[in-house]
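Consider this pair:
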Amino acid sequence: MSSGILKSLLGFPGSWVLVLSSVLLTIAVVTFPSAVRAARRRLNKSPIPVSVNYFFSRKCNKECGFCFHTAKTSYILSQDEAHRGLRLLKEAGMEKLNIAGGEPFLYPNFLGAMLRFCKESLHLRSVSIVTNGSKVTENFLKEYGQYIDILAVSCDSMNEKTNIAIGRGDGNNVKQLFRIRDWCRKYNIKFKLNTVVCRLNFNEDMFDLVNELAPFRWKVFQVLMVCGENDSEETLRDVRKWEITDEEFAVFCDRHRAIPAFIPEDNKVMASSYLLVDEYMRFMDKGSGKMVESESILDVGVEKALSQVRWDHEAFLERGGIYDWTKEMPVPQKPTAKELAASGSLDW
C-alpha cells in the first residue's frame, strides 16, 4: 500500500506515514523473526528445511559392513548447543526431525532431553528415531513415548545368521523387533521398518515377517556407496562386496511390492533427497557420491549453510518425503457417572 493511500485513509502527513511504516516493520521483525525469515526465503526461492535428519553421534554398537555414516569421530555437541542448532532449524521452517546415528539409544539421557525439547519447546509436528533396536527399552518408551511420533527399527533379514554376517545381529534381532512393535502399540508410537538390500539378502523373502510385524511404513533401501565413508579398504567400512545391481534390487522389490507399507528407494532416489545434519550441525551432501559438508549452522546460520550443499527438495517431494508423520492422539474417554461420583465431581 502506498504512502499516499495511507495518508488519505488515515489523514496523517506523509512523513508521519513513513515513520509509522518504519515502526510497524521494526515491530514485525522483532516480534515475528521466524515469519520474516520465512518470507525472505520465499522471495529468494531458497528451500525450506521442512524435514531434517540429525546424526548427533557417529558412535554405534553394531558393525554393519555397508554403513555409510561410520564412527570417524566420537564428537558430540553439548545438550545446550544441540538445542540451539535445533531451534535455528525450527526457525528456518523445520517441521519434522528424524534422529539417527550411530545409535541414538547409546545416549538415553541426551536423547530423552532432545525429544522433550523438540515437542515441548519447539512444538515440532513430528519427531522420529532410527535405531538398530538393540538398546531400546520399555522403560525409555514409557517415559519418553509421548514425545515420539515414529520409531524406525532396522531389520535386514529374518535369518539371524544373515543378520550376524551383516554385522547387525546378535541372535535376538527378530524377537526384539516384535517386542519393540508391541511397545510402540502400547505407548502410541508409529512403528516403522527400515531394510537395506545388499548382496546377502536380496534373494530373501521377507513377506510373511513384514506382514506379521505390520509396520505403518517399510522403507527398503538399495545399499549405497559414499566416497570417504565406505568405498575402499582405507575406510572403516568397505561396501563393495555388499553392492547389488539395480536389477537385483528390482527383484527384491518385485517380491514384496504387494505389501501396503512397502516403499522402495534406489541409489538415485537416496542420493540428494535427504537433508542430513551431522554431529557438528553441518549439512551433509552425498549426492555426487562423495560426502560434502557445509559450515556449521551454529556459526553461519541455516540459510548460508544450506546454500553450501545440494539438497534436491523436488526429489524429496517426489519420493513422498511429506506424509502422515504425526502419531494419532488417543481419543479421551468420557468418565462414567460412577467415576464422576467417586471423584466428587458429579453435581446431583
Q: What stands out?
A: Confidence is low (pLDDT under 50) at residues 5-10, 17-30, 36-44, 331-348. The beta strands are 51-55, 96-100, 126-131, 150-154, 190-197, 217-222, 262-265, 276-277, 282-285, 292-296. The radius of gyration is 24 Å. The chain has two domains: 3-31, 49-318.
